[in-house]
Every structure is written in C-alpha cells, then in structure tokens.
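Subgroup meeting minutes
Present: P.N., E.W., G.H.
Scribe: E.W.

1. P.N. recapped why we're keeping a running log of single-chain structure predictions: easier to compare across weeks, and new members can see raw inputs and outputs side by side.
2. G.H. added today's entry (163 aa).
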Amino acid sequence: MMMTPPTIAHNQIASNLERLLNDALARHAPAWMAAQRPGLDLGTGDFRPEPDVGVIDADYDPGQRFVDKAYLLAEVISDTDEVIVPGTDRRWIEVKRELYRAHPQCLAVLVIAQARMEVMLELRGSGGWTSISLEAGDELSLPTFGLVCGVADLYERTPVPRN
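Output recorded in log:
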C-alpha cells in the first residue's frame, strides 16, 4: 500500500527550517540539534507523533528512533492536518499543538503554512504560552535557539508567492 508523501514544498520548508535551526544551534546551543521527523515518546499512550522538525538533544544513540524530550516542535501544515480526529470535533493539527504544548520541555511550537507565507509561533514563557502570527515580511525570532531569520527564509526554493 502506498502512502501519499508530503508535497515537495512541504519537504523544502521543513529542510529550510532544519538547516536554519542547526546553523543557529551550532553557535548558540551546541548540545541541541534540529532533526526532521524525530519520533516522540511523550508518555501519552500509543500516539507517538513525528513532527516535521524538532529540536532535540544532540547526544543520541545510532539506532535511536524516539526521544522523550524536545525543545521546539514544528509542523508544516498538510491536508491530513485539517482532517477531524475520529471521535472528536478537532483537527489533527489542534491535537498535535495541544500535545506539544503539554510537553514540559517544549519551549516553542511552530505551525507553518505550506501554500502561503504564514507561521503561527507559540512560545512558553514564565506566564504561560504566547501566540504570535507572522507573515511574509515579518522576522522569526527564537532567542532560546539563537535563530533570527525572515519568515520568507523558511520558503526559500519553494513556489510559494513572495508577498
């Protein structure tokens, strides 16, 4: 059975974010690394999500598939993220966001549109979570991870229109 793969634009956005984060982390927090599709074992039953990009500990075993700590979790929105979770009235992306935000080590959640330059950035602070909506001309700033870049940088080498 063939599973439908993500779009090329989806993969390119995830690759761009991974590269930008790894470049920043190498300078700012070398004990962490960005990885695409790390398996998350968050102790929440059988559901083990694979975010498109996660910042995890750089010290891992060669055969390791899952991590139990992630510091940043990012999803590039796919059609499947818009599907309603069976038995609920909530979309998959809402369930993932809630799960990521409940993870004690997670400091940032990014939800990235793939068809337009739009990023929902959620940051954990001392007073809880804050949400910021970013568009094409905005700056994405993640001081904990040493990253400052333009939202447009996430969409490099994609056909997404530059507004």
